[in-house]
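The protein record filed below.
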Amino acid sequence: MAAVSEFVTRPPHPALRGRVLRYMGYRQHGRLPELHRGLPSCYATLVISLAEPIRVRGTPDGTRTDLSLSAAVGGLYPGPVMIAPGQYQHGVQIELHPLGLRQLLGHPAAALSGQVADLGDLARPELASLPERLATARTWTDRFAVLDSALLSATRGEVAVPAEVTWAWHEIVRRDGGLAVTELAAAVGWSKRHLSGRFRCELGVSPKQVARIARFERARRLLGQDARQALATVAVECGYYDQAHMSNEWRTLAGCSPSRWLAEELPFLQANGDDSQARYGG
């Protein structure tokens, strides 16, 4: 049976801007890959399953694991999360600004870096019941409204992230990793070492690692939009030295080469567009 897929995206309530990037609802049924790569992103992710639990088989640090979670949350990580998707998936993915996690979850992104955690182990009470509340909603509009209500209720506290770190993160993402850390540090009046230390304290990764992830995300977007592009062309456009450099980065960040990723994911990219690349759920 061929895979049948549905993906619906929506921005969050305006009051959540700066903490939540977007919501994505997904439903997939049919012939799916036996193993899915949850790819690195500059954003933290919360995925809530409305069907079978999310089966995590490997974490970004290469550790083999066997987790089954109804709601999985993770920070930034320079490596893939390996998921066994099963034949039916239904749920929502929420992309979270990592510098807003303190306000939403009461934990900095650094506390979640490189791991996949159970939402119930760290969330505020307003979020712990989200799987049950979403399961009773009948439409995507209703589910997104539940998310708005729960996330607005959970948000509390003042922004504790230094403005310099916030600005640097936004610049890295805005420029797809194309700005050197020395330039970022000079722009905020800090040393490179001090900026990297404050970054790690808040995000769990360095500015250089975020830049690598941002550049990787751009390459993934370009390949997802047109898989017929020459890899060498994509490499140059994304700021890699050459195709070999890009392929080496992909093996680190995705656990495979760009060619292998396209072979595994191309049918789903063609059917659903680039937005179908859920990190944990689909």
About this structure: The two ends are 17 Å apart (CA to CA). The first helix runs from residue 101 to 105.
